[in-house]
Please model this.
Amino acid sequence: MNRVVHFEIHAAEPKRAAEFYRAVFGWEIKEWVLPGIEMPNENRYWRVTTGSGDAPGIDGGIVFRRADAPVEGQAVNSYVCTIGVASVDGSVDAVRAAGGHLAVPKMPIIGVGWLAYCKDPEGNIFGVMQDDPGAG
Model:
């Protein structure tokens, strides 16, 4: 079976995106730097660690959004990733405090939990999911 093994967040301002995801989820985000080499923007990369290696989940990166390589006339679109959180309500509050906003209000996923979709300051949509088998 094929599994998601890495994600990338495309951003006009990667440093702003990094600050947002650090503030909301506590992710460790560091720019990948090669000593002595000045990287053009299209090659700059921020590595994202979402948790410890012994916990389920994946890590990813943040890259500059490529408007010069459009797909169907627009900048890169990507998959929506959903982040497991302790509280959807608390996460939505953190999203708003960090400059993002709610895109789709909290809803029950019967027998699974609570889900909401948010947008980061770069316009990327992501989900936040709270486990709760009694949701519904």
